[in-house]
Structures are given as C-alpha cells and as structure tokens.
Design a protein that fits this description.
Putative phosphoesterase CR194_09075; 4 helices; globular; 4-stranded antiparallel sheet; EC 3.1.-.-; alpha+beta; Cyclic Phosphodiesterase, Chain: A; 28% helix
Length: 172
C-alpha cells in the first residue's frame, strides 16, 4: 500500500490554494491542499501499526511550528508545477528530517522545499502566463501547525487520512 505524510493547513489557506488548484492542478480531486513532509512510499499493510507507533514518537518529540506562506513560485524547468512557498524554520525542518530517518529513511529525489502545490502538469505557455500573474500578487499568511497526518492512497488514486498525530507531549 502507498502511504504519505503531510500537514493540512487551515481552511482559509486551503480555500486560497483551491481557488487556483481547481483550474490548474490535475490532482485537485485526489487530495486537499497540503504540505508534504514525506514523499509517498510503499509499505505492507501489516506494518502499519509499527509505523503508527513510530510516528507517535516522532510527534511527541516534535513541537508545533509556524507555517508562513510568503510568495508564489515554480519548479520550472524541473517540472511545470506552481506552488505557494512556505518559509523554512527549524521546527519544520526538524520534523521533516525525523520523518525521513530511521526506519523511514530513503534517498530523497529532491531537496526539501516546503510548499503547497497549486498547479501541476501544466503546459509551458499556461505555466508562464499563470506564474507571471502570480508573481505580481502578494501573499502573507501565517498560522500555527500542531499536527501532521499519515495518509494512504486508495485504488482510484485518492488520498485518505489514516491517522493524525499531535505535535509535542500530549498529556491527555
């Protein structure tokens, strides 16, 4: 089964992202706007409980962080993807590193660039036009993120939350 780990921002930020995604993101219907912390990976379903135990420990050892979105950008020429750029910070970087080490370690295809995708698989002309307009817009959004989610992919390609993990010591 294919799993992934992501953060879902507030409804306010998701609404902003979706205003673009519904036009420019081919995966709009497959997963809500999110920040990927660990790229999709294959794992046998029987090992899910071990994974959940590991993720609980990572969450407990991590702290909430500020998600700051401050501009629009593109991964062109590597891919025709447009995204909302997320400001890196120590807490976010640390969480990403913890989720990509130990039993979950695998060679990363790309450096970690925190972002929320708003358009992908666009043709070059459309990409140029849209990113040209977005670079003239300003976005300055901040919110506190206090959880991340383990997702799994259904046969139709849709992603669903398996479990959500609160960051920090949970005394409940």
């Amino acid at each position: 089964m294919k799993y992934g780990i992501a953060v879902f921002p507030s409804k306010k930020l998701q609404d902003i992202a979706n205003s673009y995604r519904k036009r420019y993101d081919t995966k709009y219907a497959k997963v809500p706007p999110h920040l990927t912390l660990k790229d999709p990976f294959e794992m046998e379903e029987e090992k899910a409980s071990e994974l959940v135990t590991h993720l609980r420990k990572v969450a407990e050892q991590s702290v909430p962080f500020t998600l700051g979105v401050y501009k629009y950008s593109s991964f062109y020429p590597v891919t025709n993807t447009i995204y909302m750029k997320v400001r890196e910070n120590a807490e976010l970087t640390s969480l990403h590193e913890k989720l990509n080490s130990g039993t979950l370690e695998k060679k990363l295809e790309h450096a970690f660039v925190p972002h929320i995708t708003i358009g992908q698989e666009m043709n070059y002309d459309e990409l140029s036009d849209v990113i040209g307009r977005l670079e003239l817009e300003t976005i300055n959004h901040e919110e506190t993120i206090d959880r991340f989610s383990l997702l799994y992919q259904l046969e139709n390609g849709t992603w669903t939350v398996y479990e959500t993990f609160l960051l920090g010591k949970n005394d409940q």
